[in-house]
Amino acid sequence: MQADPIREKLSYICKQFRIPGDILVYRWIPAGHINTAYYVAIYNGKEVTQLLVQKINTYVFREPIGMMRNIERITEYIRSQEMTMEKRRRLHFRHTEDRKNYLVLKDGVAVGDDVDFQDERVEFWRVYNFIECSTSFESAGGDPEVLRMSGKAFGRFNRQLKDFDAEQLTESIPHFHDTIHRMNTFFEIVEKDLLGRADSCRPEIEEIRACREFAGTLCRQIESGMLPIRVTHNDTKTNNILFDKDTLDPLVIIDLDTCMPGLACYDFGDTIRFAACTAEEDQPEGMRLDLDLMRAYTEGYLGEMKDVLSGAEIDSLSTGTAIITLELASRFLGDYLVGDKYFRIDYPEQNLRRAQAQLALFRDMMAHMDDMKRIIHEVCYER
Ligand code: ADP
Ligand code: GN1
Ligand code: MG
Question: Domain 135-381: which topology?
């Protein structure tokens, strides 16, 4: 049999997490722009255990141990609220011999925590249960019911965490949705223009510059005390929800890596940005907001959250949807300018195309701001 270094590494990792047996099959899961995930099925002679084995991107998550502590606290809190929770709705992280829910490797060998996570020889892994008979949605557009269910799932997640003490969490990525900070970082990158790419995307850079003041709107509302900080997911794409394959019932919210203090309107808006639109995330051609899908999502989300949110928060939902889209455009373009270090790409100009697509969507959101506000108002107050 030919050597398979990935299989050998996954097998070593599962042993470190005290999972007996041999790998039957494994496959790379090509979703997500940040981490590297594998489906792994292990057979111990009696039964098959299906796992999700994941390498965390430590260029992005510079303090992965704190991040895993956040995830443990959040999953425990949600579980404590739902004592009758079915097993397939739970994320259950495996532990190593020394009771850690993560494994640090250096040159492929398990080591202690006292390492530099920026060292290329160091890797950070975790293992948890693969949720069976589930599916997630990777694409824009499609079925309004999927959007309604997604709104329900993220609304419920926000509601379950409404009394969670944010002080218990570390910021897994500092300034993650601090849009003023994001804009400052972006224009520093443009100034430096290390790879000489800025000239090829002047229109996009200037479009972001023209909206720089608007981008800071919600940061200023936090500063003035108008908007409360909550514990939010911060990455509410529909591929971060696992749905029952047959019934479309949302089973569990995954990708809790960025779960930390944030704004409800960004959790609301990020799903709309990703899924309530007419083209893929890297497809500027024909990219528009789909108001019917946006309405379906709003119904699902506000069905769970309208009694929790303040009037100012409800007013911020449409603005937040546009700002999270603009913010991501600046993040994709910034990453293109520095040589694609953060978001995984499948082809050379993907981050530029992603930025162009987000800008097209942002423009359409701004053009339909009154429609978004009307829909939110109707769903919230007129039913
Ligand atoms: P990333 O941070 O790279 O987006 P995710 O944690 O979202 O990583 O995982 C990537 C993909 O793997 C998800 O979009 C989903 O399709 C699949 N996935 C993740 N966790 C599970 C799980 N527990 N059960 C089944 N599929 C999963
Ligand atoms: C990344 O990991 P993934 O693919 O779920 C990113 C989000 C972006 C998203 C854009 C930690 O999410 O912030 O909105 O790509 N995650 C991180 O698709 O930066
Ligand atoms: Mg994900």
Answer: Aminoglycoside 3'-phosphotransferase; Chain: A, domain 2 (3.90.1200)
**What values do phi and psi take at 41, rounded to 5?**
-110, 130
Judge contact between 364 and 306, C-beta under 8 A. Answer: no
Which is nearest to 183 in space by CA: 138, 216, 148? Answer: 216
CB 242 less than 6 A from any atom of ligand 1: yes
Would you say the CB of residue 102 lies under 6 angstroms from ligand 1? no
pLDDT given for residue 84 in this prediction:
66
Structure confidence at residue 383 (pLDDT): 65
Q: Is the pLDDT of residue 211 over 90?
A: yes
Distance in Å, CA 324 to ligand 2 centroid: 12
Distance (Å, whole) CA 159 – CA 81: 11
User: Length of the chain in residues, anyone?
Assistant: 383
Taking residues 185-206, report their average pLDDT: 98
Q: From the CA of 259, how far away is ligand 3's center (Å)?
A: 12
Q: What is the pLDDT of residues 16-60, one digit of tens each?
A: 999 999 999 999 999 889 999 999 999 999 999 999 999 999 999
Ion ligand 3 — residues with CB < 5 Å: 32, 240, 255
CB of 369 within 6 A of ligand 1: the answer is no
- For domain 5-132, which architecture applies? 2-Layer Sandwich (3.30)
- Cβ(234) – ligand 2 distance below 6 Å: no
